[in-house]
Structure formats: structure tokens, C-alpha cells
Design a protein that fits this description.
Largest sheet: 7 strands, parallel
Radius of gyration: 25 Å
Structural class: alpha/beta
Length: 569
């Protein structure tokens, strides 16, 4: 028991419960918090602590309802501070929808989900409201609830774009390998297979070793997270070897694209018309860079407009399409038995999935902040949906061992006080103090890059690790602790860290992960020496060899084309 908690326990019933929890007596703590909650029906704070004590006592089932109660009471109280009309909120579903949309836009997801949930009319379901409600849950990490909402929406409104929201959500659920595979195949059976010709005919020139016509399909190539990975390849393509076509929603809204690329606007075209355009362009290799994510044009691929079709970059899970020939993975993502979950053939292309270009405004590497702070600051800039229970439990163990250390959680919805308090309660269930967590919202440009200077060690969640944020951390000199996972996706942190010459940042499992986190941060001078290796390691890695990667990728595409020529001879 800390001295501060002990001094408060006699006068503050919450502090008394915290002291019992801190002393390793969660049952006594739960009884104390329960008594407070009974005496204060509108009090959310006692219920947050009751949740933590119940989880610590092994009563996870009861704890979940307690957390729901705390969250709803807290969100209800916060709605009043946002000027919500309580009378209208109880009776006017359209008003609830309006409030929910406004709160969603400001990333107050817990408040938004309460309002959007109240806006739903089961007799007159509305697809937009249901999707927004599901997303507001997902952005809080309430995966099971989001899956239920997206499942109901997909059933009520059968449409490929609507169904794709469910595909993303199930990947954060238990047994996700099977569930994603089955759901992606179901999506394909409903929306792709009926469009695919039994014997597609191509007008492409059947000549080996000629200049290949390569087509990339995505909503944008400059205004989303794929830009730092894809633009280096587009710029490095050899015009003597390939002719590049880009199919995006609105070319007029794009940033600067390589002058050698032919850009086609497809935002106003039907999927069939886009497929006809691609077929008329005689594309040899057609690459989807977006997958089952909002803005996808995967139904275009269902028409089989190109002889070779490939999935890459943004969505490394299966598309479920039988007409998608290949998907590109890094070598270190390989796990025996993965093939059964894919309709595509997995093509392992080397140490990385794609190059990563750091921004021109990247700041100079600063010394590890623990040298001046006297304590370690861990960081995770990942979506709350990735903060699985085992991730929080492991990170809490690290914090419990080092009471002076801190963890920065940064993502847009973390500005929501309710999500903050829920996250604190989840960590407290495993012994971390709420005061050890710091929350930060969304930033861009230099403000975003500057925040890496505050982090001593980035912590990778599992089984859904970071991707873009991990590359950003390494590019800015922050070591990232990841692990070998049990499946291909839980290993995506390995091809981020390993090519940078940092094998000591890869753990063999959660026990090793916790041990490594504590060992790596025990000596601040040694941690600073590690930090000094990170950015040079990234800059010397395959991530920065844009031309070398692109030449290899062009070779892979040529092998795929040669296979098609041989198979269709």
C-alpha cells in the first residue's frame, strides 16, 4: 500500500478500496466499492473501481456489466456538459442521431455511441446510423458489440461496402483467423463470385519479357496511410520495364504523382465500367492496395479484368476472392498452416512488405527522455481496438513493477474523458495506477513527429500489432518492442524491427516481452545507447532502399506474368 493511499483511506472510501486493491485484496476492495455504488446510484467512479476489483478477483463476467454501467453513467453526465437537451434526448431519435454525429466528429466516441445507440429505430433501421454506431464502438475497443452491430447492418442492408465494416471488426475478435477467412469468403460468395466470368478473355499481348502494364487500384495514393509506402515504389518504377496505371477516386484531389503514371478517375464509375476501363488498358498485373476497408473497389476485381490480380499493403488478410491470385507478405510473417485461411496464394517477397519513406520534416533524434525525466515513458500510438485484454494485462505488469514509469496512449478518440477513464479502469484491474497513463489525441505534421521525442520505448500490442505507427517510431529513433506471434498477422511487427538490425526488440512471448521491457529500460544510459542505433538502423534498412525493393517487386510481377503465360498457353 502506498503512503498516499494509506493516509487517504480513513477519510475517503474510494481511497480505502484502492488501498485494499493495492494490497492484493481485491475481494475486500470489491465489497467496499460495491457499498459505495449502492449508496450513490449515479456515481460512475465507484463503479469503475468496482470493475477493476472484480476483474482482479476473477469475476470477469460480472465485471463487464459493471463497466457498462460506469461508462453509461459517465457518458450521460458528460452529455449534459455538452449542452444536450435531456428531454429531447429521451424522446427524439433524430435529435439523438444529430448529437451522435456531432460527438463522433469530435472523436468523443463513448458519448457518440450512447447517443447513436439511442437514435436507432428497430422498426425503421437506418444504415448510416447503424454503421456510425458500430464504428463508435469499435474506436473504443468494444469489439464484440461492434461486430454485433455490423452483423445486423449487413443482414438488413446487403451491400458489399456495408458488409466490409464487419470484415475489419472480426479481425480484432478471438478466433479471428477462422472468422475473417469465413466472413471474407461469404462476402465473396455474395458480391464477387456472381460477377466473375467462368472463362475470362484477355486482349493482352502474350509475349514474355516485354514491358508489363501494371495497374494499382485504391481510393487515393497520396492522401492516406499507404502513401508513405506506395509513393516510393511508384516513383522508382523502371519505365523501360513497366508502364504504370493508377485507378483512384478523384485525380484532381491527389497530391503530386510521378509524371510517368497514367491516372484514371474511377470515383463516379460503376464497378463494371471500371473493369471495362482496366480491360481496355490491357493491364497485365492489377494490384489492390486497400482491401476490405472503407473506399474499397474490390468488386472491380470480381470481374477479372486482368490476367494476374494481387492484394498488397493496406490489407494483409485474405480478400476472400477466388479471382485474387496472390497476396504479398514479408518472409518473417510466415507461419505453418496459414494458407488454409487464404483464397490467394501467399507470395513472400523478402524482409519487408513495402518501403517506408519518412517525412522531409523529420526532426533530429533527441536523447532518450528518461535521462532528464528520471523515469521511463512507454508509448503506444495505436487504435484502442488493438488494446486486447492480454496486451493491457502485460503492459500493466510492466507499470506495476515500475510505479514511477508512465505510458502514453495516443490516438484521436483518446481525447474522450470516458474512454480515458475506461482504459484506466482496465489497467487498474491488473495493478497499474490510473495516474501512470497519459492520453493524447490526434496530431499531424511536425506536432506528430515531435511526440516521438517524448517516448523511451514504444510498446507493440498483440495479437494486432501496429504497422504505420511502428515504422514512424523507428524512423524517429524510438525503439519498438514487439514479439513473434502465433499467426501471420501477430508477427507483422517482426518485419518492421528485424530488418533494422534490432533483434533484441523481438520477444518470444508475453513473459519474455515483459522481461525485455523491464530489462531494456532498467539502465537509462543503455537505453539511450539503444536509441542511438534505431534511426541509423532504419535508414540503412531495406525500408529506405526504394529502388532496390521496386526492382525486386517488378521481378515478382514478371514471375507472376510468366506463370500466367505458361498456365494459359
Amino acid at each position: 500500500m502506498t503512503a498516499a493511499l494509506a493516509s487517504l483511506a480513513s477519510s475517503d472510501p474510494i481511497a480505502e478500496g484502492r488501498a485494499a486493491l493495492d494490497a492484493g485484496d481485491p475481494v475486500t476492495a470489491a465489497n467496499l466499492f460495491h457499498a459505495i455504488a449502492e449508496a450513490r446510484p449515479a456515481d460512475h467512479e465507484s463503479r469503475y473501481w468496482l470493475y477493476s476489483a472484480l476483474v482482479a478477483a476473477g469475476e470477469a463476467g460480472i465485471a463487464r456489466q459493471t463497466l457498462d454501467d460506469a461508462r453509461n453513467l459517465h457518458a450521460g453526465a458528460m452529455l449534459r456538459t455538452h449542452g444536450v437537451d435531456a428531454g429531447r434526448f429521451k424522446t427524439d431519435k433524430a435529435y439523438c442521431a444529430q448529437v451522435g454525429r456531432q460527438l463522433y466528429a469530435t472523436k468523443h466516441m463513448a458519448l457518440a455511441s450512447l447517443a447513436l445507440g439511442c437514435s436507432l429505430d428497430l422498426d425503421k433501421p437506418d444504415a448510416e446510423r447503424m454503421i456510425s454506431y458500430g464504428l463508435s464502438l469499435q474506436h473504443q475497443g468494444r469489439t464484440d458489440e461492434a461486430i454485433d452491430v455490423f452483423s445486423a447492418t449487413a443482414e438488413a442492408f446487403p451491400h458489399p461496402a456495408i458488409h466490409e465494416f464487419l470484415l475489419y471488426a472480426v479481425f480484432h475478435a478471438p478466433d479471428r483467423m477462422r472468422r475473417v477467412s469465413e466472413e471474407a469468403r461469404r462476402w465473396s460468395d455474395l458480391y464477387a463470385a456472381p460477377l466473375t466470368p467462368a472463362k475470362p478473355v484477355f486482349g493482352n499481348e502474350r509475349t514474355a519479357n516485354r514491358r508489363l502494364r501494371i495497374g494499382y487500384v485504391g481510393p487515393s495514393f497520396t492522401r492516406n496511410q499507404v502513401a508513405q509506402f506506395l509513393l516510393p515504389v511508384l516513383e522508382a518504377h523502371d519505365p523501360q520495364a513497366v508502364e504504370v496505371f493508377l485507378y483512384c477516386a478523384d485525380p484532381s484531389g491527389e497530391g503530386e504523382l510521378p509524371p510517368g503514371c497514367k491516372v484514371r478517375g474511377i470515383g463516379q464509375l460503376s464497378d463494371q465500367d471500371v473493369a471495362t476501363q482496366i480491360r481496355n488498358d490491357r493491364i497485365d498485373i492489377l494490384i489492390d492496395v486497400w482491401g476490405h476497408t472503407s473506399g474499397s473497389r474490390l468488386p472491380v476485381f470480381a470481374y477479372r479484368p486482368a490476367p494476374v490480380q494481387v492484394a498488397w499493403i493496406n490489407f494483409v488478410q485474405t480478400t476472400g476472392l477466388a479471382c485474387m491470385d496472390y497476396i504479398l507478405h514479408a518472409d518473417s510473417m510466415e507461419v505453418s498452416g496459414t494458407d488454409q485461411y487464404f483464397t490467394e496464394e501467399i507470395w513472400h517477397i523478402g524482409p519487408i512488405v513495402a518501403p517506408s519513406r519518412p517525412p522531409a520534416e523529420r526532426l533530429d533524434v533527441a536523447p532518450t527522455p528518461a535521462l532528464k525525466n528520471g523515469y521511463v515513458t512507454y508509448g503506444s500510438f495505436n487504435n484502442p481496438a488493438k488494446l486486447s485484454e492480454i496486451t493491457i494485462a502485460a503492459w500493466a505488469v510492466i507499470l506495476r513493477q515500475r510505479p514511477a514509469d508512465r505510458l502514453v496512449l495516443k490516438y484521436g478518440p483518446f481525447i474522450d474523458p470516458v474512454l480515458q477513464r475506461v482504459t484506466q479502469a482496465r489497467f487498474a484491474a491488473y495493478g497499474a495506477a490510473p495516474e501512470q497513463l497519459e492520453f493524447r489525441g490526434h496530431t499531424t505534421g511536425p506536432d506528430y513527429w515531435r511526440e516521438f521525442q517524448d517516448i523511451d520505448l514504444a510498446l507493440d500490442p498483440s495479437p494486432c500489432p501496429g504497422g504505420t505507427t511502428s515504422c514512424d517510431a523507428l524512423a524517429n529513433g524510438v525503439p519498438v518492442l514487439t514479439q513473434w506471434g502465433d499467426d501471420f498477422y501477430s508477427r507483422i511487427g517482426v518485419p518492421v524491427v528485424l530488418p533494422c538490425g534490432l533483434p533484441e526488440l523481438i520477444a518470444e512471448g508475453w513473459d519474455d516481452y515483459v522481461a525485455k521491457a523491464l530489462t531494456l529500460t532498467q539502465d537509462h544510459q543503455a537505453l539511450d545507447a539503444l536509441r542511438a542505433r534505431v534511426r541509423p538502423g532504419f535508414d540503412a534498412s531495406p525500408y529506405r532502399d526504394e529502388v532496390g525493393f521496386t526492382r525486386h517487386l517488378e521481378g515478382v510481377f514478371r514471375q507472376m506474368h510468366a506463370r500466367w503465360l505458361a498456365a494459359s498457353a
